[in-house]
Specification:
By secondary structure, the chain is an alpha+beta fold. The protein has 2 domains: about 90 residues, Homing Intron 3 (I-Ppo) Encoded Endonuclease, Chain A; about 60 residues, no CATH class. It contains 4 helices and 11 strands. The protein has a 3-stranded antiparallel sheet. It has a 3-stranded antiparallel sheet with strand order 4-5-6. A 3-stranded antiparallel sheet has the order 9-10-11, covered by helices on one side. A hairpin with a 5-residue loop joins strand 4 and strand 5.
Length: about 160
Amino acid sequence: MIEQHLKSELEYNPESGVIFRCAGRWMPKRKATLNTVHPNGHMYGTFMRKTYKAHRVAWFLHHGAWPMGEIDHINGNAQDNRIANLRDVTHKENTRNMKRRSDNTSGITGISYHTKIKRWVVRIGHRYIGCYKTKEEAAVSRAAEELKAGYHPNHGR
């Protein structure tokens, strides 16, 4: 099985997050593997003709089982595969720890300025929260709603 080959031929350092090929008869030195960077920022590599995401392999090598859901990088750095930075979460939980979108103009996730009504509009996902005269009021409202909805403190960083 592939799991046995992964365990026997790869080593994972949980403090650094680096995955190595074990030294053996076919490879005399330890060499970092699964270290190619995808355009989305995640690390990956090929093992036995199959492509793997490094964070999922790190989870498997550390815990001995594949993650049940998605792997979330707590600090938002997709190349930081230290076990302390990884958590097994649902898709919903993973989206609640996203960075601020690049097309965000207000500087705060979920807040936009509506020029016709001259108010700051707050939303969480597709849910409308309210309109506010100042950006500060909108930010306080958004933060309170995020707390109620169970968003990760890093969301919108």
